[in-house]
Specification:
The chain is α/β, with parallel strands linked by helices. The protein has two domains: 250 residues, Spore Coat Polysaccharide Biosynthesis Protein SpsA, Chain A; 97 residues, 3 Solenoid (UDP N-Acetylglucosamine Acyltransferase, domain 1). Helices cover 18% and strands 26% of the residues. The chain contains eight helices and 30 strands. The protein binds guanosine-5'-diphosphate-alpha-D-mannose and magnesium ion. Magnesium ion (MG) binds next to loops. Guanosine-5'-diphosphate-alpha-D-mannose (GDD) binds next to helix 4 and strand 11.
Length: 381
C-alpha cells in the first residue's frame, strides 16, 4: 500500500513552547471524525441512536468533541458516517450553529476505520488531517497534538495515553525519542501501558496511499504497514482526561464526569455540579440526585428515589423509593416503586416493575415489560 519509504535528511527539531503562535497550523488542518461504528457494546441504546449521538450531560456526545475541535481553531470538519448516517446531518446540519463547516461522507457498507479515513479524501483541503474516533471523551487540546506533529516533521502523529489495562485498546510502544515502534491492536500481552487514544494527525499524502473502495482497518493494516515501511510515526503522550465511551460502564462514568466538571467540555460553558436536571423534568421533594446524575427533559423522579451516577434519558420515570446507580434509563422507560437498577442498561420504553432488582450488567431491551416483583439478580438489598 505505501510504496515510498518515508525518511527525511534532518532529525526532528527541538520541541517548541506551547505559547508560540501557530502560524496557520489550525487553518491548514481538516478534522475528520469517524462515527460509522454500530456501537454494539452499548445496545440496546444504539438500536435507536448511533453511539456518538447518545445524550451525555444533555448534549449528543459528539457535540462535546466538536466543541473541542472548534476551541482549537479548526473549523472544517468531515464526518465519516455509515450506520444511521442521516441522524448526524439532521442534528448538526451544515455546522454553522456551532461556527463550523461540516461535511458528511457516507459509507454504504462500513469501510472500517482506515477505509473511512480514505473515503473522505475528496473533501480534505489542508496539508494536515486530524482524525478522531467519534466515541472518545478527552481533555487534550488538539493543537498540542498538531504542534508535536509539526515539530517532529512526522508522517503520522498519534495521541497516546496510559491506562491500567491496555488489552481493550491499541497498544503502542515508543522509543526514548517518542518514535512509535509498533502498533498492537487489542493484544492479550501488551508490552507497555501506552495506548492509542483514538486521535491522529496524518499528512494528507499518507491518506492518499490507503487503498480505496474496500474495508481497511487503520489499526491492523495502515499503522503496521507504515511502521514496516519506515514512515516517521511519532507519539504525543499526555495525561489529560481520557475515556472511550464505548461500554455502558464508561458511558455512565464519562457522563457523570462531564456533569461534575471532571471531564472538560467547552460545550458546557464551565457549568458543573453534583447533578444536572433538564428543563421540564419533575423532581419530587425528597428525591436524592448525586454522583453526577443527569435527568433528561420531561423525565419524572418521585419522592424517596435515589439516583447515584444515573443517566435518565428524556421522558423516563423513576417511581417512589426506587434506586438507580451507575445505570442508563432509556427514553420513556419506567422504573417502578422500590425497584433497584445498578450497573445496568434499560432500553427505551421498557418497564421495570415494582421491587425488581437488576444488577451487574443487566440489559433490558426496548419496550420489554417486567412485572412487579418479577426479576431479582441479587438478594443484597
Ligand atoms: N466511518 C466509519 N466506518 N467509522 C467507523 C467504522 C467504519 O467502518 N468502524 C468504526 N468506526 C468508528 C466508530 O464509530 C468509533 O467512533 C471509532 O471508529 C472507533 O471504533 P470503536 O469500535 O469504538 O473501536 P475501539 O474502541 O474498539 O478501538 C479503537 O479506539 C481505541 C481508543 O478508544 C481503536 O482505534 C484502538 O486502537 C483505540 O485504542
Ligand atoms: Mg471505541
Amino acid at each position: 500500500m505505501v510504496s515510498r519509504v518515508f525518511r527525511f535528511a534532518q532529525g526532528p527539531r527541538a520541541l517548541t513552547d506551547e505559547s508560540e503562535p501557530d502560524f496557520g497550523l489550525s487553518e491548514n488542518t481538516d478534522a475528520v471524525v469517524l462515527v460509522g461504528g454500530k456501537g454494539t457494546r452499548l445496545r440496546p441504546l444504539t438500536l435507536s441512536a448511533p453511539k456518538p449521538m447518545l445524550p451525555t450531560a444533555g448534549l449528543p456526545f459528539l457535540q462535546h468533541l466538536l466543541s473541542r475541535i472548534k476551541a482549537a481553531g479548526i473549523t472544517h470538519v468531515v464526518l465519516g458516517t455509515s450506520f444511521k448516517a442521516e441522524v448526524f446531518e439532521d442534528y448538526f446540519g451544515d455546522g454553522s450553529d456551532m461556527g463550523l463547516e461540516i461535511d458528511y461522507v457516507m459509507e454504504d457498507e462500513p469501510l472500517g476505520t482506515g477505509g473511512g479515513i480514505r473515503n473522505v479524501l475528496p473533501k480534505l483541503r489542508g496539508d494536515n488531517v486530524l482524525v478522531f474516533n467519534g466515541d472518545v471523551l478527552g481533555g487534550t487540546d488538539p493543537l498540542a497534538v498538531l504542534r508535536t506533529h509539526r515539530d517532529r516533521e512526522a508522517d503520522v502523529t498519534m495521541h497516546l495515553v496510559r491506562v491500567s489495562d491496555p488489552r481493550a485498546f491499541g497498544c503502542v510502544p515508543t522509543d526514548a525519542d517518542g518514535r512509535v515502534e509498533a502498533f498492537l491492536e487489542k493484544t492479550q500481552d501488551p508490552p507497555t501501558d501506552q495506548i492509542n487514544a483514538g486521535c491522529y494527525v496524518f499528512k494528507r499524502e499518507i491518506i492518499e496511499q490507503i487503498p480505496a473502495g474496500r474495508s481497511v482497518s487503520v489499526e491492523r493494516e495502515v499503522f503496521p504497514k507504515l511502521l514496516t515501511d519506515g514512515a516517521r510515526v511519532y507519539a504525543h503522550v499526555d495525561s489529560a482526561y481520557w475515556r472511550d465511551m464505548g461500554t455502558p460502564e464508561d458511558f455512565v462514568r464519562g457522563s457523570a464526569d462531564l456533569v461534575r466538571g471532571i471531564a472538560p467540555s467547552p460545550a458546557l460553558n464551565g457549568q458543573s455540579g453534583e447533578s444536572l436536571v433538564h428543563e421540564g423534568a419533575g423532581i419530587a421533594p425528597g428525591a436524592l440526585l448525586i454522583g453526577g446524575t443527569v435527568v433528561g427533559r420531561g423525565a419524572e423522579v418521585s419522592a424517596g428515589a435515589r439516583l447515584d451516577g444515573a443517566v435518565i434519558f428524556d421522558g423516563a420515570k423513576v417511581d417512589a423509593g426506587a434506586v438507580v446507580e451507575r445505570s442508563i434509563i432509556g427514553s420513556g422507560a419506567h422504573i417502578g416503586p422500590r425497584a433497584l437498577v445498578r450497573d445496568s442498561v434499560i432500553g427505551d420504553g421498557a418497564q421495570v416493575g415494582a421491587r425488581c432488582e437488576l444488577v451487574g450488567g443487566a440489559r433490558v431491551w426496548p419496550g420489554v415489560v417486567i412485572p412487579d416483583g418479577g426479576l431479582r439478580f441479587s438478594t443484597d438489598v
